[in-house]
Amino acid sequence: MFPRAWRAIALVASCLIATASSAVTYSPVKPPSYPLAVRSPYLSAWIPGSLVESLPSHNAQFWAGNNLVWSVIARVDGKTYNLFGVASPNDETQSATVTAATYTSTHSTFTVTAGSRQFTLDFFSPVSPKNYVRQSLPFSYLTVTVTAGNSASVQVYTDIDSSWTGQASDSTWSYSTSGKTGVFQIEANGASTYSQNSNGQALWGSAVYATRPSASSTLSTQSGPRVAVRDQFVNNGTLSGNHAAWSSGGVVAFAHDLGTTTSASAVTFAIGHVREESIDFLGEAQTGYYRASYKSTTAAVVHFLDDYSSAKSESTDFDSLIESTGTSSYGSNYSDILALSVRQVYGGIEITIPNDSLDTEYVRAFIKEISSDGNINTVDVIYATFPIFYTLSPDYLKLLLLPVFEYQASDAYTKEYAVHEIGANYPNATGHPADGEEMPIEESGNIIILTYAYEKASGNTDLSDTYSAQLKQFAEYLYENGLYPASQLSLNDALGELANQTNLAVKAAVGLATYGALTDQKNYTTTGREWADKIWTDHLGTDDAGTRFLIQYDTTPWFLVFNHYPDVLFDLDVFPDEAYNATTDFYPTVRETAGVPLDGAIGWGQTNWQSFVAATVTGDTRDLFISDLHAYLSNGLNTAPWSDRYWVEASNGYSAGQSYSFRARPTLGSHFALAALSGANIWSS
């Protein structure tokens, strides 16, 4: 019995050791979801943070939550290990052990142990705001590196399937080469241009997977039924070179044989989704900016792989800038917030040129209102996002506003106030629908503020010079209608249409003062300040004691005054210091378990408007907003790509700190509101 007891103790000890060794180190924190390949609304692959510990057996997910087949498998000395995305493993394979997960503003990196060797999987989505070719290329990198170690024979395999096309039941694939680069393309059959499935995936265009041999690898390829293709690799460490026709559940696959080695070795893949006709802008097809230089998909992906070293070098500088900007603005917690926000923002945008002329003089940008209603170039979404552009790439404000101004200048738009969006369903920028949302005060103020933000950050006046008549029209609309707003929607559209909304009057006052700064017409600035005096000093929009701003004039519930932000950012001095001192004192008194709600009548908050407000308050109250935002980022309660709306108190079956409704929206650009106070246009590459 004594030996048996020792065997039992040894078994328990080995289990404890195995459990300890399986613990994953997360740096800087474990987020709700890691961006894997996030470059456009249609190339948007993620893995929930809660699944990272079992990364080898879980699929990547599209932003909407549906699975995308994308696997990585390795053989080490003839034994096969699943590294990533193998939800249905073949016989004779085992899962690698995940030991570490990190994210920066451009990379998500996972470390796994497979037999005697360690591998890193680096999912790299470049963010290059001022290099339009690099930023517009619809591809992302995956680099698999085997680290140095004992001598071992190593092979690396990866595959994808037609889930990337949005129509997994009926697709076609092809394989081609260009020099040493192998390129698979998968297309859905019978799809209409500009159509999406119910998850928001593009049904037209091509999913693309490409690679080339590294200096130390030999490349093989295969397509066909998933089990058969993977078995070929498991049994032989190489693929057959046969390219069977598409079949349901089939895969396209690459394998790199790295040979027997003790040194580190890496192989890089490009994954993407290409649509030649990418946006319908008022009946004229737009295409990716990169196509002026690389007209074919093969040429584009070959260049993308050629560009890897330069893109990676730039990403090192960019990641460092985001980290230092966050830390210097408000500490390491704020840096964590900014780093996770970046890819989500730029991954919601496409930079385009006309598909017929490929003329780069006519560059535009289009942003998708992801996960709410799918609108295109929604003005208030651009407004919520603008601090990141003000900080890093002010030209994006111009590129996003140009299609809006152009549409408003057409005969199709006849309203005296600014439009809400230029199309109900991305990628169809075909005009504001007759039954679409209207936000007259909000959007008129937003257009003016965004134009001034572009001018102030870039030093360029071309936008305001070209569209001066529209801007004047919207300023006059604010002047005539802004102090006592008629019943209408605001950015807090959960309120419905209400008259005399204080936040709309604040937007009008700040918007008029901004127009005065934009045009050097002091009478508009004076009017904005006079209105602020009525709203604050005369208590038109506050309680009698002046301790809080109210949702509506002469009503009880308070609200979060996010429309103050441009007043602070632009140093307009519309509202007096006393107003900001009052909000600084008040917000901590209404904080719920996980943060400050959007107003006094609801149990949820929005990180975009909390971030705007964090830049308008000071001291402990600013600390409160940033610490609550970081706690929400890292609380482990959420799995969707970071939602900008969450429950601040337990409600409707949700815990405080759980996300609510939205996911993957580019409005996280608002998280840069505090950083923007320190300077504009800080990215110089």
From TrEMBL:
Signal peptide positions are 1-22
Classification via InterPro entries: DUF4964, Glutaminase_GtaA, GtaA_central, GtaA_N
**Keyword Cell inner membrane applies:** no
Q: Indicate the segments forming the DUF4964 domain, all copies.
A: 12-86
Top-rank taxon, per record? Eukaryota
Asked if the keyword Signal belongs to this entry, the reply reads yes
Ranges where the Glutaminase A central domain occurs: 331-674
Tell me which residues make up the Glutaminase A N-terminal domain. Answer: 106-324
The alphabetized UniProt keywords are: Signal
Q: Which PANTHER family match?
A: GLUTAMINASE A-RELATED, PUTATIVE (AFU_ORTHOLOGUE AFUA_6G09910)-RELATED
What's the protein called, per UniProt? Glutaminase
Give the species this sequence originates from. Penicillium cosmopolitanum
